[in-house]
Amino acid sequence: MSSLRLILLDIEGTTLPISFVQKVLFPYAERTLPTLLREQADSPAVRVALGDIEREFPGRDPLAQLQDWMAHDVKAAPLKTLQGLAWRSGFESGELRADLYPDVSPALKAWHDSGLRLAVYSSGSADAQRLLYGYSSNGDLTPLFEAFYDLDIGGKKVAESYTEIASRAGLAPQEILFLSDVGAELDAAQEAGCATCQLIRPEDGTKPAPGFRHAADLLEVATQFGLPISS
Ligand SMILES: CSCCC(=O)C(=O)COP(=O)(O)O
Ligand SMILES: [Mg+2]
């Protein structure tokens, strides 16, 4: 029997195709960010994000910096906050729907129904994570998750972030299985003591990182770790 109590999931490249992020989400944010920065300039979240950019890149046009980050898929906290704000109207109006990998919803439901705990850990802001799972093509999946962790808890390539997540969940790291497509994130989780598995999604062209278990989808994760499989 598995000693795992909580499955911690990355999003991009793990439950959501990288192509969806690059071809749908990022262009939507790029189109809507100029208006958002103008119209919500006084909102505290926008002010903090712009202030962070100004501190890191004094004198730089913030929009140009945001566009540079998006072009290189840099997981910068101010960008992630502002993208989350930009996507809100798209998800709420029905213009955006998250097309998760088809194996994701059945696996999450089977794991949740069996009593396993589920949480998200993504560079996308916690608000954006809730939108994405709240407005997915498979309906609202947010009730399946007990927590949504983002970069506020620390970087995904830093072992202490996983120690902190384990502590907040009231679990030993060994009771957590972290699923991600990125080797450096799995390295950090493994250093903290978590079980790990790298998702090698053929559609994303993920390269297998040495030293980890690999799976092509969540069904294969379930088989490898003795987790329930949807009927
Ligand atoms: C709500 S997450 C949207 C995708 C995104 O912007 C992102 O940075 C995801 O990165 P991850 O850490 O999930 O690989
Ligand atoms: Mg990822």
TrEMBL record:
One MF annotation (Gene Ontology) recorded for this entry: acireductone synthase activity
Gene3D superfamilies for this protein: 1.10.720.60, HAD superfamily/HAD-like (3.40.50.1000)
Pathway field: Amino-acid biosynthesis; L-methionine biosynthesis via salvage pathway; L-methionine from S-methyl-5-thio-alpha-D-ribose 1-phosphate: step 4/6; Amino-acid biosynthesis; L-methionine biosynthesis via salvage pathway; L-methionine from S-methyl-5-thio-alpha-D-ribose 1-phosphate: step 3/6
One of the Pfam families matching this protein, by short name: Hydrolase
Cofactor: Mg(2+)
GO biological process: L-methionine salvage from methylthioadenosine
Cofactor note text: Binds 1 Mg(2+) ion per subunit.
Keyword set, alphabetical order: Amino-acid biosynthesis, Hydrolase, Magnesium, Metal-binding, Methionine biosynthesis
EC number: 3.1.3.77
Catalyzed reaction equations: 5-methylsulfanyl-2,3-dioxopentyl phosphate + H2O = 1,2-dihydroxy-5-(methylsulfanyl)pent-1-en-3-one + phosphate
HAMAP family found in the cross-reference section: Salvage_MtnC
Oligomeric and partner information: Monomer.
Protein family (similarity comment): Belongs to the HAD-like hydrolase superfamily. MasA/MtnC family.
Function, in words: Bifunctional enzyme that catalyzes the enolization of 2,3-diketo-5-methylthiopentyl-1-phosphate (DK-MTP-1-P) into the intermediate 2-hydroxy-3-keto-5-methylthiopentenyl-1-phosphate (HK-MTPenyl-1-P), which is then dephosphorylated to form the acireductone 1,2-dihydroxy-3-keto-5-methylthiopentene (DHK-MTPene).
Record protein name field: Enolase-phosphatase E1
Gene coding for it: mtnC
